[in-house]
Task: inverse folding
């Protein structure tokens, strides 16, 4: 497992009323969301990155208006053609 460290100025945490745990959770979830939407990483791996169950990550996706059916249009058409 890869670990990445980022520095967030204390002032940002203060201004956003976040503590270290809140900031860590936010960064994990943002990274997982980015990977899911832009890189087609599986929902399972993204849930793991976010530190959530798959079910909770699916709810998180819905809260951010992201479909759990993360397919490109041409992939969907190919699936229909092959059905």
Result:
């Amino acid at each position: 497992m890869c670990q990445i460290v980022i520095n967030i100025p204390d002032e940002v945490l203060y201004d956003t009323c976040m503590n270290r745990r809140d900031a860590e959770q936010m960064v994990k979830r943002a990274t997982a969301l980015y990977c899911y939407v832009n890189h087609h990483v599986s929902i399972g791996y993204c849930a793991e990155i976010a530190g959530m169950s798959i079910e909770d990550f699916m709810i998180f996706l819905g809260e951010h208006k992201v479909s759990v059916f993360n397919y490109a249009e041409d992939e969907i058409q190919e699936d229909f053609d092959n059905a």
The CA atoms of residues 23 and 33 lie 15 Å apart. Helices lie at 10-15, 20-39, 43-50, 54-63, 73-82. The longest helix spans residues 20-39. The chain has one domain: 10-82.
